[in-house]
Design a protein that fits this description.
alpha+beta, 11 helices, about 375 residues
């Protein structure tokens, strides 16, 4: 009897999970467009998921997943240019690595975790977040013709200094360790479910107010903005972190390119659905990492067909797979780096990188190689 009940419960659970995934897939491909209002009152955050409170603004349009060309989609002239042969006794020669790898500048000999964090999220970036958060709060309150008496906008106060913003950022990271369903559940005083550190550091009302108004770029600057249009809201942070990743640490000889999917189930025009990923729904990015430590050297957010890859080594007829690689690897070219990958791989790319003193070592071409005909 107990065995039969367990089987029935397991089947119901599987059916329920299939229904959730199917509903999310239908939502992703739905052609209807709706908009998310920025003027919703902040008092309803109790029922919101934490990620939805922090990222209150997102794009409205939906788009299908557009994958870049893989190495197998190289030009048809490949068979006329390269001829494959068995090379069982072939011994390749690696480029000599000449770069000074490891921590650079102020990151050298630094082991304190808080100081290391502040090298990336330095005073310049945090002061930018404070300034733009206060500006956006003033713009939003001024745009409201009427503010209800019970609205917390009436009690909203500007962020006074960068230390308060550092507290909010620290709690964001702590939420990744202590995971709960809603934002307010972190401030519950129930003796069984309580996490006292949150309420001890900052009040729930103050934390919600900062989350609702958190901003990174002035909306008035949209006319002079030159970066990717879909990343306008967060572009200053992306640009700052990319610069810091490259300047504070130089990778060793072995590097690799990864294509992670950051979980995101909100409304976003460049949200991707990749069933083979653990997250399935999210924001796709291209990341250049060091193979030994996994350090993130640089990254590019994929925003769909209009994703821009800026590099001097790319022309109009360059394959898009090669464009991704050359855009990420450009700062490390001509230094003898070696990277191994199956997906971002082609004879043309290997020849191009070799000419730039960078070696591509594919994983699948064991005992075979190519030479120019």
């Amino acid at each position: 009897m107990q065995h039969s009940v367990a089987v029935m419960v397991t089947r119901r659970k599987c059916l329920f999970e299939d229904e959730i995934e199917q509903s999310l897939l239908e939502e992703l491909t739905d052609s209807d467009q709706s908009s998310c209002s920025d003027d919703d009152d902040s008092s309803g955050t109790d029922d919101l998921i934490v990620g939805e409170v922090i990222g209150s603004e997102s794009s409205d349009n939906e788009s299908d997943d557009v994958q870049f060309a893989t190495a197998s989609s190289a030009p048809s002239a490949l068979s006329d240019t390269f001829m494959w042969e068995d090379m069982t006794n072939y011994v390749g020669q690696r480029e000599q690595f000449v770069d000074n790898c490891g921590p650079q500048n102020e990151a050298q000999n630094e082991t304190h975790c808080a100081k290391a964090f502040k090298m990336f999220f330095d005073d310049e970036l945090v002061e930018l977040i404070v300034r733009e958060t206060n500006t956006y709060a003033a713009q939003k309150i001024q745009a409201r013709s009427f503010i209800p008496l019970r609205s917390r906008m009436r009690d909203s106060k500007p962020v006074t200094n960068k230390d308060e913003m550092y507290v909010v950022l620290a709690l964001f990271m702590l939420m990744g360790i202590i995971q709960k369903l809603t934002l307010r559940s972190y401030f519950k005083k129930n003796c069984i479910l309580a996490t006292p550190v949150f309420g001890f550091i900052i009040s729930m009302v103050r934390f919600e107010s900062i989350c609702n108004f958190m901003h990174f770029n002035n909306n008035d600057n949209i006319g002079t903005y030159q970066g990717p249009s879909k990343l306008f809201k967060i572009y200053p942070v992306l640009f700052h972190l990319n610069t810091k990743f490259r300047s504070l640490y130089l990778p060793g000889q072995n590097i690799a390119i990864d294509e992670p999917l950051t979980l995101w189930r909100g409304r976003l025009s460049f949200r991707q659905y990749i069933p083979l990923k653990s997250s399935k729904f999210g924001i796709k990015s291209y990341e250049l990492c060091e193979s030994s430590l996994g350090y993130l050297c640089s990254f590019i957010i994929y925003t769909g067909k209009d994703t821009v890859f800026q590099t001097v080594f790319v022309s109009s007829d360059t394959n898009k797979t090669e464009t991704i690689v050359l855009s990420l690897v450009e700062p490390l070219l001509k230094k003898g780096h070696t990277w191994m990958d199956n997906f971002y791989n082609s004879p043309f790319l290997a020849q191009r990188l070799k000419s730039l003193k960078t070696v591509l070592e594919p994983c699948v071409l064991v005992g075979k190689t190519f030479h120019k005909n």
